[in-house]
Amino acid sequence: MKQSLEILIDEHRRIEQVLACLEKIIEHCASEGRLDGDAARQAIEFFRDFADRGHHGKEEIQLFPVLETRGLGSPCGPLAVMRREHELGRLYLQGMEGYMAAASGGEADAVQWFVQHGQSYIRLLREHISKEDHCLFTRAEQALTDEDDAQIQEAYARFEAADLGPHARQKCLALADGLAERYGVPRAHASV
Ligand SMILES: [Fe+2]
Ligand SMILES: [Fe+2]
Predict the structure, then answer these.
(1) Which domains does the chain have, with CATH numbers?
(2) Which of 102, 115, 149, 173, CA to CA, is 20 to 30 A from 1?
(3) At a CB cut-off of 8 Å and minimum separation 6, what does 32 contact?
(4) Residue 24 — φ and ψ, nearest 5°?
């Protein structure tokens, strides 16, 4: 597998780690009738900065445009679907953020909405990651040249350093591991 895809696959495992934590946060929220606001804030910060800005940013800004030049960019094709799913994930994330304060205060309606948005987000991202790992990236592996691979990896590095900031990734990974320890979720092991 090309390194530019391996990097994204490795990030999928990190995202799944925090999805498993969010699942526990939601279970507690539903059973206790009150959200643990501190844990929820950390999980949402991870999803906003690492999963959406960082990971989906790499896909949308660096990988997908190159795949479009290699014939994967039809209007109803896989890249259009992946972009729409990223947008839907942003709406669920905004929904969780919007209800977070009231759900932390134990307001019943807010607790229900937080749980609904959270469950939808988890389901969406797990299915989305599965489609990328098993379908899109298999096609991308065949479509990308070695030159494309090198160019995309350089673009990722520039994006991480300039657009996200030099410490953003480490901060997010620390959040992910703190939540995993707190909820007894196994840590993802980096392959790259
Ligand atoms: Fe994606
Ligand atoms: Fe992805």
Answers:
(1) 3-183 (1.20.120.520)
(2) 173
(3) none
(4) -70, -40
33-61 pLDDT per residue, tens: 999 999 999 999 999 999 999 999 999 99
Q: Which ligand is nearest to the CA of 85?
A: 1
What is the DSSP code (8-state) at residue 77?
S
Please give the C-alpha separations between residue 85 and each of 92, 121, 142, in angstroms, as whole numbers: 11, 10, 23
Distance from Cα 99 to the centre of ligand 2, integer Å: 26
Nearest alpha carbon to residue 84 among 60, 117, 58, 55? 60
What token pair was written down for 70?
Answer: 């290699």
Taking the centre of ligand 1 as the mean of its atom positions, its distance from the CA of residue 129, in whole angstroms, is: 7
Ligand 1 center from residue 163 Cα (angstroms):
18
- Model pTM above 0.90: yes
Cα(57) to centroid(ligand 2), Å:
9
Place of tokens 């094709």: 77
Alpha carbons 103 and 37: distance in angstroms, whole number: 8
Rounded Cα distance, 167 and 158, in Å = 13
